[in-house]
Every structure is written in structure tokens, then in C-alpha cells.
Amino acid sequence: MSDSTTTTVTTWSLEQTSPADLIPAHVPDASSGIRIERAAVPSPEFSRFLYTAVGGDIRWTDRLSWSYEKWTAFLERPGTETWVAYEHGTPAGYVELDAQPEGAVEIVYFGLVPAFRGRRIGGHLLSVGTARAWDLAERWPEREPTKRVWLHTCSLDGPHALGNYERRGFRVFATEVTEEPDAPTPGPWPGAYPEGAA
């Protein structure tokens, strides 16, 4: 395959190994209308909306083919949580947590709807999501206490993604470079994103 049909993608895996590693971002004042709360009722419709709204311009495609049943089974697993940021009642982004064996919690997805990027919401959302990963066992007594919070991000996620994670106290523990086929972003529809938001 020629270079013109592939993209070089760098993927970084990052972790925290103690709650003390977390460096919280500035908390928006009440007048900003920013609040973060857990979507405590598993909802495939809502989770798929968040997934496509946040990831449509950065090639999140692995879950587009998931059935309703697969979404439901994933969201109902003990220790799976979705934390949503709202601005004046409108969903602005989310963090999805997945409890794993041996006290690990993965931040599986994190991001903002394009129209809400660049407004100092992401750092706060990541801070809250990471803190909830560290205290996850308090809400799921059958889970062992969190010993490690980890995630991965890649060069397709945008120019500020890696820096945001590092500012919150995550450390890179692995880097991988791959060639991936060029593909159009999946949506949500042409022209949906404000100029310069992506």
C-alpha cells in the first residue's frame, strides 16, 4: 500500500499508579454552567450518542457496528461507568471507565463534542473522571480498590490530547507507531463541526 493511502499513527499508553499522581485542573466557577454527573442508568442510546458525537471527527469507528444487545451487555458490567460533562444542561463530553482485573481501571473513552473543545472543560472533566476511577470501588463493593488507572491516546485524537493527560499526572509507559489506512471520518454528518473546532 502506498504512503498516499495510509496515515502514520502514534499511540501512547499512559498510567497513574497512585491517587496522589492526579493533578486536578482548575474547577470552573458556578456561573460557567458546567457540571459533571454519572449516567447511572445504562443506556445504549445515550452512550452511542456520546460516542458518535465526540468521536465522529477523530475516527472512532470500532463501536459503530455494535448491536443494541452488545451495548447493553457492556454498559451493565459491574464497574463500567459513564461520567458526562454538561454546559447549561447540554452534553459537552464524557469519560467512560472500565474496571479490570487486579485493581486496574481503564479510561476507555474521553473527549468533548467538537463545539465544546477549547473552552477549558476537558481538563476538569478528565480530573473528575480520573478521581472517579480511583474511588470506583466505593461504588462497586465487589471490586477491589483501584491500584492503577490507565488509558491510551493517539495522534488522531488531536494536538492537545497527550498534553492534557500529562498535565493531569499521567505518565507514558509505552509508545507504538503504526500505519493505518486513510479513511473519511464517520460523521455525524458533513459540515456538522464549527470551523476550527476539530
From TrEMBL:
Which range is the signal sequence, renumbered to this chain? none
Region listing for Disordered, in residue ranges:
177-198
Keyword terms = Acyltransferase, Transferase
Domain N-acetyltransferase, chain residue ranges per copy: 34-198
Q: Which GO terms describe its molecular function?
A: acyltransferase activity
SUPFAM superfamilies for this protein: Acyl-CoA N-acyltransferases (Nat)
Q: Does the keyword Nucleus apply?
A: no
Note whether Transferase occurs among the keywords: yes
State the superkingdom. Bacteria
Q: What is its EC number?
A: 2.3.-.-
Name the chain's protein: GNAT family N-acetyltransferase
